[in-house]
């Protein structure tokens, strides 16, 4: 239980941190790539407005900041920028190729890039490490390519650095959380241990007075004969004794003190035997019990615990089904294991609180529970048994007039 709570704490912490890291790293790098692209866009716009050349500006009369891209030209811009351009006529034939501002591209290379751009039909974008822009001229069009190798490498290096830093941070936090998680959840663990110890101690202490009350009731019956008061004492003693046993059983399961004897047994026969034992009770209450159990299904687990699980679900169905209701039990094999379903009709049930039925002492209908003698702890035991067998249990109601308890093993 402690290790499970510790793992859950670590998983929640790391999942939250991972989400924050993804959003942070993703946002920063998107902004960085966008900024890099906009600066290149500003440079190409300046070139396209001046027929593929940087305008000559004096130091004190540089062009103003481009409002959309944020590009600002300085004295070194035309010396730092590597670009080439091709002038096309109206038919798309290259009339002039200028590669004087770049040494990595020949005229043939430039024609290859232009043909790729024309085939794509786009007016701006990227061809490898070159960002291009197509602008219309009086005689045709002008295609300008700008070398963004350095900017893209810087952006990629920033991305790699931020990802590695984020992963390193996650690893460091994981180590710290793993080391200090027990200290963080220690107050919760102490409260849980005190609660379990109280239940165990109180259960054992209550057993003695219950035994004395039961013995005294037997003496009174022998001395004075049977009476409604003695019957009431015996019934309430039996109810309280059953509650104490259930509390102790649940406490032992959650603490891991119950040893599960894992061995293969006949699951079909087990479910059929337990469910069939409720036939007489169903008949006496004018309720219809039907079984649909697939034969020859086996399970690797504790047969005694599974018997208790099935008995709990059957007892719950008998208690809380409506008058002249129907109870259906099905057992079948699926792709992910074996599925046990116990369904009973009800007058009406809301589907929003069904998960809470497995909470300790939770009851959907308090008055109905008092009539049936339920304490709202049986389903908690069933859930613990299912989880101890690496399975799960859930409740669902599709029409509001029936409820199904589904156990996947």
Protein architecture, described:
Helix 4 runs antiparallel to helix 5 (228-255) and helix 6 (267-276) runs parallel beside helix 8 (303-320). The chain has ten helices and twelve strands. Mean pLDDT is 82; it is low at 366-374. The chain is elongated. It is α+β, with helices and mostly antiparallel strands. It has two domains: 2-154; 263-408, 2-Layer Sandwich (Heat Shock Protein 90), CATH 3.30.565.10.
Task: List the defining traits of the structure above.
409 residues, alpha+beta, Heat Shock Protein 90, 2 domains, five-stranded antiparallel β-sheet, five-stranded mixed β-sheet, 10 helices, 12 strands, 54% helix
Helix-strand makeup class:
alpha+beta
Shape: elongated
Count of alpha and pi helical runs: 10
Main sheet: strands, sense, barrel: 5 strands, antiparallel
Helix content: 40-55%
Report low-confidence residues grouped into runs of 5 or more.
366-374
Please indicate the percent range of residues in DSSP E strands (runs of 2 or more).
15-25%
Strand order of the largest sheet: 2-1-5-4-3
Distance between the termini: 20 Å
H/E element sequence: HHEEHEEEHHEHHEEHEEHHEE
| Cα radius of gyration in angstroms | 39 Å
- Total number of distinct structural domains: 2
According to DSSP, the number of beta strands is 12
Q: Give the integer mean of the pLDDT values.
A: 82
